[in-house]
């Protein structure tokens, strides 16, 4: 994971939260909630349930943050907790919970150039929605949060080789959707 000002702030907030500073824990929650909500909503495909899963994640984090030895590992640690909570929810849903699929789509009108092709971020947003949940999660963790494949394997419990092939397939699918050539 790249080290930038956000990572340094997160590490400092973790240290403060570990020393019992409730404001630091609240600040961590405000900073991380939107990221975790996007991930959880895609994982379990129910926005309301995702909010509950993220809340359960923060409850678990607040109870066990003192046990986290390395504040720099907080992002991987919190995603592991979130991922497990999401899997637990999906298992519970499979046992009889009802599922109402609600996704909040953001309207973004920026344009970017990728591989010589002018692409709007709306196109990218739509392209991401064609991915299967596990491929979306991989793209989300790898490109949006900068986790390497080894770290993602630790978060999801998926072998690195499987992640490599999924990442390759997801890139090709996105490239095809966005009008580029696949490899």
List its traits.
8 helices, mainly alpha, 2 domains, globular, Arc Repressor Mutant, subunit A, 2 strands, Rna Polymerase Sigma Factor, Chain: A, 183 residues, two-stranded antiparallel ribbon
Structure description:
This protein is mainly α. The protein folds into two domains: 5-94, Orthogonal Bundle (Rna Polymerase Sigma Factor, Chain: A); 111-177, Orthogonal Bundle (Arc Repressor Mutant, subunit A). The protein is 67% helix and 4% strand. The protein contains eight helices and two strands; from the N terminus they run H-H-H-H-E-E-H-H-H-H. A two-stranded antiparallel sheet has the order 1-2. Helix 2 (22-44) runs antiparallel to helix 6 (133-144). The chain starts with a helix and ends in a 6-residue tail after the last helix.
Topology of helices and strands:
Blueprint: H1 5-18, H2 22-44, H3 47-64, H4 74-94, E1 111-114, E2 117-120, H5 121-129, H6 133-144, H7 149-156, H8 160-177
Antiparallel strand pairs: 1-2
